[in-house]
Amino acid sequence: MEIAVIGGGLAGVEAARQVTRLGGNAVLYEMRPVVTTPAHRSGLLGELVCSNSLKSTDLTNAHGLLKEEMRILGSIVIETAEQTAIPGGKALVVDRERFALGLTDSIESDPRVRIVRREATAIPEGTVIIASGPLTSDRLANAIIQLTHAGNLFFYDAISPIVDAESVDRDKSFYASRWSRDGTGDYLNCPLSREEYDTFYDALIAAEQIELKDFEGAAYFEGCLPVEVLAERGKKTLAFGPMKPVGLVDPRDGRRPYAVVQLRKETASGNMLNLVGFQTRMKYPEQERVFRMIPALRNAVFLRYGSIHRNTYVNAPLCLNGKLQLKSDERIFLAGQISGVEGYMESALMGLMAGISACLTARGGDFVPPPPTTCSGALIRYLTTETRNFQPMNINFGLLEGYSKKTKEASVERCLEDIRGWKRQMGLEKNTPSC
Ligand SMILES: Cc1cc2nc3c(=O)[nH]c(=O)nc-3n(C[C@H](O)[C@H](O)[C@H](O)COP(=O)(O)OP(=O)(O)OC[C@H]3O[C@@H](n4cnc5c(N)ncnc54)[C@H](O)[C@@H]3O)c2cc1C
User: Fold this and answer.
1) For labeling, which of 97, 189, 277, 309 is most exposed (least CB within 10 Å)?
2) Ligand 1 mutation pick, 155, 314, 344, max ligand atoms within 8 A of CB
3) Structural domains of the chain, ranges and CATH numbers in brackets
């Protein structure tokens, strides 16, 4: 059994490794160094395009827990990262070049992998894993559009921050939809007085932003402008835009607030709330500092930060099933950032999952996603749950079923127990030589 993997980034190497570990052969298409992307600098597999930090290793942090799951499942990215780690406190920080060299050596010396150094401009025959990343080449993107239908492949993301619902001050916020009068509604509204708005505005205008990359110059669409760009258009633009208070009455004083930040449920349980219309390029610590000036968010815990960058990804809930197959063509699997996750490790994890899924499926077996009590299962559930406005997601505890801060240790233990159980259930304990 031979499986084609398009893209030799973090997801592609994970996918290829899982395919060969399960006894299959992989043909890995990587276009670099023949054709390059605007962010990569070398022809090495698994090159990190920006930070060399793979984030926390602490098990009580969702990023740390995700890494532990990947270690349990035999991740080549984790193994190589640990071999090339440099001191980074509680974060797994790698020597960038040794890390990519290590992954390249490991894949190049795998007799079951054939590396083809050219741009895939069409989807090959047979079982295929597409792991071409946020900077997928244009010709391949066009081929993916044919399969996912127009409008379901995006080229930029404009992400608003998400906060932990429990961390929002309920004495300083109120539930209402615009024009509803009964204190119920879909939005948790965070009102600001004129003075509070002015202070917030001044901080927003002055906040440090992440610099645009050369190739990201004209990334903005009018409908999803960064909040700071809107603010630069005039002091009242936000009060008439995403912070407009029309149709809202603050039950504390029966009056319309000067401005309002609306929080919308991101999950059915309502444990994660999205700041509606607050897509931003502010640096992460600046997002915490500035958004905490909104009175109800003074102690907000941020589960996801806002961002806007060049990113190729599918409308996962419409395009993917739980096996990470395209609904429109089940011989094709998606892995990595293009599947709708955000971040190095999340991308690698989706490569690992797609590799296992493609292999088991190709040999007539059955792949079921890990339970949603695990990071892997929770991310796949996020990708495959229909939502109004799908946006890429990084791992955070808000996604895990049954997770509770009060019983954090038990939730972590359960997660690891469940991923081990899933590994046994899928028959991944031993290498299976007949993929
Ligand atoms: C500029 C930028 C900075 C980022 N910084 C961070 C960060 O600091 N931390 C973080 O956690 N996440 C970051 N991300 C997000 C994301 O986690 C990384 O991009 C991650 O590398 C995605 O992994 P991937 O395997 O999906 O894609 P990639 O690692 O990009 O791998 C995709 C591979 O596919 C190849 N390819 C593309 N098209 C074709 C084709 N047609 N044929 C053959 N090969 C092809 C590419 O050359 C590339 O090697 C960043 C993203 C971008 C765009």
Assistant:
1) 97
2) 344
3) 2-159+310-425 (3.50.50.60), 162-305 (2.40.30)
